[in-house]
Specification:
Length: 300
């Protein structure tokens, strides 16, 4: 048998009138007129078939039925209010939990994070690295930075930047392995460094550049992450596919160079994602604003 629950808005009005014993105070708390409060009480009394309040010259008082009903309804509303406060407190307080990839954290986020902490010293940031897409119902994360096409269900996503890739190596490696009269094709006949999770990058860039045949017989050395792949390039072990936004410091300092100067911007990109249905606390809003501002400034 279905449970009988009265209309919730009239029930809420009843709770406030019973708690305050005053129609005027109830109207002020609800930001409505006193007559609107009276109408809602009448709706509830009509549903229940009993009189809940005595209308007297100087206000209202609970009837016997009203007192009995209020003794159980008011604690129920107290429990709802307490549960809501706990939920909001747990979601809005504490550290900001950011989920992303190890490479993005190490090469992009961490070098820039001190600027966020300087602006928001009261917000602690905790970074969790993982490969699978975030599931906010399952994972302990407030926001995530993910790679893809931005079409994830049940999340709001902000585009950060597209995936721009091209070969990188050290200036010394370039000098040693380029061909006669500086021909660059020779670089592709030596060792190509490959990241396990981005193992198609070389083939896709070579196709884009029209150089697939030049590297058809080249040795390939694989590493477990892009960070290790780029470190191998820095150590002069070969030439790697770099992601320009991740290697800004190395490229700006000249530790790595882009010998072909042929960047390819792919359709997939990095996005900031957060739950679609969420009461967005200040810590999330602050981090989102800082992140988008930082990206926009650097892209400009």
């Amino acid at each position: 048998m279905a449970r009988r629950i009265p209309p919730l808005n009239p029930l809420r009005v009843f709770e406030i009138v019973a708690r305050t014993n005053n129609l005027t105070l109830a109207a002020q708390e609800l930001h409505v007129s006193q007559s609107a409060v009276s109408r809602q009480i009448a709706v509830l009394e009509g549903y229940l078939g009993v009189e809940l309040f005595k209308r007297e010259r100087h206000g209202v008082t609970l009837t016997k039925h009203g007192e009995t009903y209020a003794s159980e309804v008011l604690p129920a509303f107290d429990s709802i209010a307490a549960a809501t406060a706990r939920l909001l407190r747990n979601s809005s307080q504490g550290a900001l939990r950011v989920r992303t990839y190890t490479t993005f954290a190490a090469k992009w986020l961490l070098p820039r994070l001190p600027a966020f902490q300087e602006q928001h010293p009261s917000i602690e940031v905790r970074i969790d690295s993982a490969i699978p897409d975030v599931n906010f119902d399952r994972d302990s994360a407030d926001v995530a930075i993910q790679f893809g096409d931005g079409g994830w269900p049940r999340v709001n996503s902000d585009l950060l930047f597209h995936d721009e890739i091209e070969p990188v190596c050290t200036p010394e490696y370039l000098k040693t392995h380029r061909g006669p009269r500086g021909k660059l094709d020779a670089l592709l006949k030596h060792r190509l460094l490959v990241s396990h999770y981005r193992r198609t990058d070389w083939d896709e860039w070579l196709e884009f550049a029209g150089m697939t045949e030049l590297a058809s017989g080249s040795e390939r050395m694989s590493f477990g992450s892009s960070v290790l792949t780029w470190q191998a390039a820095l150590d002069g072990m070969g030439i790697a596919i770099g992601q320009a936004p991740m290697l800004k410091a190395e490229l700006d300092s000249g530790r790595l160079v882009r010998p072909f100067a042929m960047p390819w911007s792919r359709q997939k990109a990095y996005y900031l994602v957060r739950p679609q249905v969420q009461r967005e606390p200040r810590k999330i809003a602050a981090f989102r604003e800082w992140l988008l501002d930082t990206v926009a400034r650097e892209m400009a």
